[in-house]
Amino acid sequence: MGTACGRQIVSDVRNGLAGLRASAAGFWSARTEQERRFLTAGSIVVGLALVYAILVDPALTGRERLRKELPALRQQTAEMQALAAQAAQLGAQAPAQVQPLSRDRLNATLAARGLDPQNLAVTGDYVKVDFKGVQFAGLVTWLDAARREERLAVQEAKIGTPGGKEDSAGLVDATLTLRQEAGSR
């Protein structure tokens, strides 16, 4: 059944095309020689305009755009290669030694950021610190500095509003467990 239906469709398309050809031939034969020349010339002009608009113009404008962008792309490539060489050079260097954690040094960095911990415990490579009612922005700034300077990574963090109040305006209670990493920053 599928092939019979397919044959019928092909037959209908052929009949439709034959009808169009017949009407086009009738239209063409009804024209005078001068009209035929005008129609031929017009068709050629329209065809050339389409070829130019679809194929030639996009290629030319794309080529011009690339010609303008190429110096900037070359500059970016040179910068990336320089940065890659610098990164490889830095990667080959031995990592800086990290000073062992000390309670006094951590208290000094906390005080410099205006943070007053309720409890600070240093055990080997681990630090446990509790805060009550501190500014969240100050806490995050201190954590970022501790990550860069002391290579402290957050192992566990519990952060909430002071006393469960909703109107604490940027203040938080936090319990943090941090670990000093010996690897690179």
UniProtKB/TrEMBL annotation:
Cross-referenced SUPFAM superfamilies: General secretion pathway protein M, EpsM
Subcellular location: Cell inner membrane
Transmembrane parts of this sequence: 38-60
GO cellular component, one term: plasma membrane
Main location: membrane
Pfam families the UniProt entry points to: T2SSM (PF04612)
Swiss-Prot/TrEMBL keywords: Cell inner membrane, Cell membrane, Coiled coil, Membrane, Protein transport, Transmembrane, Transmembrane helix, Transport
Tagged with keyword Protein transport: yes
Coiled coil: 63-93
Tagged with keyword Nucleotide-binding: no
Protein's recorded name: Type II secretion system protein M
Origin superkingdom: Bacteria
Membrane topology: Single-pass membrane protein
UniProt record similarity statement: Belongs to the GSP M family.
A Gene Ontology biological process term: protein secretion by the type II secretion system
